[in-house]
Amino acid sequence: MTSRIVTLSINNDQYHVHVRNIDTLLFTIREKIGLTGTKPGCLNGDCGACTVNINGEAIKSCLMLTVEAENKCITTIEGLQDTTIQKAFIEKFAFQCGYCTPGFIMNGNDLIHNEPNASDSMIKSYLESNICRCTGYQEIEEAVKEALTNNNYDNR
Amino acid sequence: MTWNIGKSIKRKDAIEKVHGTAKYTADYISPNMLHVKLVTSPHAHARIIKIDISEAEQVEGIQAILLGEPFPLTGDEIQDRPILAFGKVRYQGEPVAVVVAKENYQAKQAANLIKVTYEPLEVIHSPEEAIQSHAKLIHEKLANYKKSDNVYPEPDSNIANRVKIRKGDIKQGWTESDIIIEEEFTIPPSDHLSIETRTVTLEIKRSGEVHMTSSTQAPYRIKEKMSEYFNLEIGNIIVTAPFIGGGFGGKVAIHLELIAYLASKAVGGKPVKLHYTREEDMMTAPGRIGLKAKVKLGARKDGTLTAAKILYLFDSGAYADKSTLLVKAAAATCTGPYKIDHISCDSLAIYTNRPYATAYRGFSHSEILFAFERTMDILAAKLKIDPLSFREKNIILPGHTTPTQVPLNNSSIGNLPACIKKLKEQMNWHEGTFKKIENDIIRVKGISCSWKTSTIGPDASSGVSLLFNPDGSINILSGIVEIGMGAKTTLAQLLAEKMQMDVNKIYIQMEVNTQSTPEHYKTAASRGTLMAGRALLKAADDAMNQLKTIAAQVLICSPDDLEIANEKIYLRDEPETAIPVKEVCYGYKYPNGYTIGGQVIGRGTYSLRQLTNLDKETGIGKTGPEYTVGAQGVEIEFNIKDFTYKIINAYSVIDAGKILNMKTALGQITGGMAMGLNYASGETLLFDDDGLIQNPRIRTYGSFRYGNHPNYIVDFLETPHIDGPFGARGIGESGLIGMPAALANGLSLAINVNLHQLPLTPEQIWKAVKNDDRL
Amino acid sequence: MMIAYDVDYYNPTTIEEATQLFHRLVEEGKKPVYYAGGTEIITLARSERLDLDAIINIKSIHECLLAYSDENEITLGAALSLTQVIKTNFFPLLNQTIAQIADQTSRNQITLGGNICGDIFYREAALPFLITESKAVIANRTGIKEYPFKSIFNQKLQLSNEDLLVQLKVKKNEVNFPFYTVKKRKQWDVGYPLITVAAVKKKEQLKVAFSGLCNFPFHDVNIDKRINDPSLTAKERLDGVLNALSSPVLSDVHGSMDYRHFVLKNLLQEVVDAFKGAKT
């Protein structure tokens, strides 16, 4: 059998979908489930626009098969609502066309949760997984740093 | 009083964009949509001998397979491009066949099974090769192509267009020169690399209406061109442009919409989707133009420029598309922002077997500025004059004329001397341009000046409609496509300022639909603010007149006595006599039920004024309304041992006319700077000896990632462009265009060897030093 | 945006199950692949550079996910992601070398075994094992065997079609030697190497392994000899290394051969300088 029905847990909702074994998680999330906030940019793991969170870790969904994601806890950009980092992106104008933004936010959200006191080099290590073509990255830097500050403040 | 102008009003698209709910073309998904997959050429130049589709037809789910036809031929100013290659292929990645299938993977399976037999032809790699007298012709029938009046292809050659500038007397210019230098520069083609790859969905309805959603910067031009190519009623073509995931000029070209139309037509009009892979987006779709430049420049001993003879050989690639206009823009601003009395310039669009070129942010200005501003630095060094002082001495000023002999005034040219002065302060220019930091590390500075005007059609226009809601709030409809620059938020700000009202009560339709949204020529050339802004102000005047007319009847006065602010219409000298806008904007209802007026709908259009074509022999004419000038620089930390470097600071001082939204303006400038520095330092398409692209993926393309960016130091001057809304000038490209030259000037200083080629990778720098016999 | 191939998918939980399955599929005329992080298989399959019709995911096999340190050696499962390996902090040279592979998010997916066994020829994760006393634990349907890493790695891991790399082991005292690793790229901070080196100093002698210099990673004792000769100048050291190479230096999109020579010369000096004063 080259296809099967899988059960996926995305943003705390359960989805039963028929997928080809070779379908990437990106494809399934977008085309089968209709959560189009996760963006295709290269399908090669190079741009990070398709970043989602799986079991607490940032993952490029173009480089994972859907069948691998069964029984895992998947969060997409639609699963984040008014988070610190989203507010900071608005505040700091850290997007223009907005296409890379979901990926940056998913990745940045992991950063502020995993590394609340991230150094500059840690921030770089996280954020260099994604590419933005509109901004000169400075606004993204400001937004992530503001989110780190605000998140620590909120958590006190 | 300023309500909104200059303030960093939050973007109207912010909430949707940070929550992933902003819709882009590929996000429109429906189960009945068929999928289109291309078969593309593996050769840069070859004859198509045979195409065997028999195996492909057997694949489950296949609905149609399309091959090339001789007609229609398509193109911008020259119609030279078949929608699918016919007879021969002229670049690697050119579409040769199209498969339509139920599922995307089925289309791909079938595409893999289409067998095309080619007979390779001699490949033309560069514009220099292409203009050799014996060069193989890429377009044998160039003379027969349909073209616009003001483009001059040279039959039986590979020259698609030549624009000439003849100003003054070049011979006299050389006589007046104490020193003459001649330099050559090369910029290979590269790609826009928008993160959203080009995508279209299209369906042909029973009624004949063609509906499409496209990642396009030019929805109205698609309408016009498709009507012409396919002989369709223009009103039957309805283009929707939702959010666009980065344009940078690349989505001005009309390309995959045509393929999608043929594909849908082949399956009885069913909806189809064509979504380019990154590889297709980089190879099949058009990219940034390449350039080979020869600049000969003369000056007196005192540093006064005397003469410039310039040859710009642009690498159009396989088809002309925007190249004919790109070379015109290059010719019109060929000397950079300097006063030179004697100019002779030939700017050519030349066919090669490379991916074809289209608009790219800066529209050939960054390429020619790289060549010209490098030459300026070399000449300054020869003259032993400080490079910025040298530029200050020769700046083009009000009262001077451009290379195309247009007289300039304050409004049209702005204030470049003040930009340079400010740049000097910011860069601590007096401290010098070269400093040793530690053993192998030095710090150097490089600069460039820039100017930019537009080269779009002399008849381009923009329209805006304003629709009132019953609560007095307003919906703006404008044909500007939101490609990322925030223009729609700026329009809302302009309206809030004009109406003296809360910007939060202004709504703007983000999506463009050519059937219901007033036309904006195309979202390009930094023309959004000027054209749509002016149209909007006119629409606001129209709406305000309507409001006043109704209110005057209620308040029993002349409309001339009324003012509007704070959503109230009031007597000028007696503001307490007022009526809320919301009681008027849907018609005023008297207590007895009588009503006067209905929904207020404001309308306004704006057209560029008194632009001309350029004279064929002299180039005399006017391509754009105003210039945006700037002075830019970089500070680089350079390792003299291994030639690696880091761009520490990047500077821009731009005469913006008027800043409308500070944060979005800064974002335009810094984003442009990053893009300019990126293509100057690392990005390029690498070709092998057969003309095949070696790096059609982001992984090996050389784009900046987080951390490669410099500190940006940006400052604005505000010399009003009197025609612009509140004096604003276009700034969407100005951050980019001086950056390649500034980087190259700085790095040339670092190695004390003149750099002549982009991109400036450490290897490129190492080569330049090595060839200078110093290692 | 799809992969055209149709594939079977298996998710075995034991080594035995996996190896038997692989054998059975081959017998049936299938083209199975062992699959861990998937990053390379998915990218190559999408662009039709890899032919397969069955995927055997090894990420549910307990042994492939182990990471522990006992008295004598450190054991790292082949299906651990690079990020997981880095978090163990067992083998600092390995950590630093693999922390330069791809980017952070991708390292959450790329696995230790996948990088070493990949078709993409950099295989930088192999470098630390080439210059230390290490072993590869390899299984097939006949059983599980341990091999000295050096003996079984020649350009790539010399696996037969049905072999599964289960674990990597390194002698515990080896991870305490002074080390240095550096990756030189064409430009910027992410991406494939122009040249990557990993080096350790053991008994006053440097051992240096390379990736990106030729189209395979390697460690060559003849090259070590040149590098360890204190009498040589940078130029002589470079010439010595180039003469000892068994394969031509790469010339590709990342850099020409001549440029790689230049970078290598500086790099060798950098490595030698880095160990100055280091006691072993």
Summarize the structure.
Chain A is of the alpha+beta class and 156 residues long. Chain A has five helices and five strands; from the N terminus they run ββαβββαααα.
From the 3D structure, determine the CATH topology of the largest domain in chain A.
Answer: Ubiquitin-like (UB roll)
- Nearest-angstrom radius of gyration of chain B? 27 Å
**Unreliable parts of chain A:** none
Quantity of strands of chain B, as a count: 32
Instruction: Return Rg of chain A in Å.
Output: 16 Å
CATH homologous superfamily descriptor of the largest domain in chain B: Aldehyde oxidase/xanthine dehydrogenase, molybdopterin binding domain
Structure description:
The complex is a heterotrimer of chains A (156), B (775) and C (280). The model of chain A has no long low-confidence stretch (mean pLDDT 96). Chain A has a five-stranded mixed β-sheet, with helices on both faces. Chain A has helices at 25-32, 84-91, 101-114, 120-127, 138-155, and strands spanning 3-10, 13-20, 51-54, 57-60, 73-75. Chain A has 156 residues and is of the alpha+beta class. The N and C termini of chain A lie far apart (52 Å). Chain A folds into two domains: 3-76, Beta-grasp domain (Ubiquitin-like (UB roll)), CATH 3.10.20.30; 84-155, [2Fe-2S]-binding domain (DNA polymerase, domain 1, Orthogonal Bundle), CATH 1.10.150.120. Chain B has 775 residues and is of the alpha+beta class. Chain B folds into three domains: 18-121 and 196-245 and 251-283, Aldehyde oxidase/xanthine dehydrogenase, a/b hammerhead (Aldehyde Oxidoreductase, domain 3, Alpha-Beta Complex), CATH 3.90.1170; 290-456 and 611-771, Aldehyde oxidase/xanthine dehydrogenase, molybdopterin binding domain (Aldehyde Oxidoreductase, domain 4, 2-Layer Sandwich); 460-607, Aldehyde oxidase/xanthine dehydrogenase, molybdopterin binding domain (Aldehyde Oxidoreductase, domain 4, 2-Layer Sandwich). Chain B has 19 helices and 32 strands. In chain B, the strands form eight sheets. Chain B has an eight-stranded mixed β-sheet, sandwiched between helices. Chain B has a five-stranded mixed β-sheet with strand order 9-17-16-15-10. A five-stranded mixed β-sheet of chain B has the order 18-19-30-31-32. Chain B starts with 13 loop residues before the first helix and ends with a helix. The mean pLDDT of chain B is 97. Chain C has helices at residues 15-27, 39-46, 82-88, 92-98, 104-107, 112-117, 127-130, 149-152, 221-228, 234-244, 257-274, and strands at 8-10, 32-35, 54-57, 67-69, 73-77, 134-140, 143-148, 153-154, 156-157, 164-171, 179-184, 195-202, 205-211, 218-219. Chain C is of the alpha+beta class and 280 residues long. The interface between A and B is large, with 53 and 59 residues.
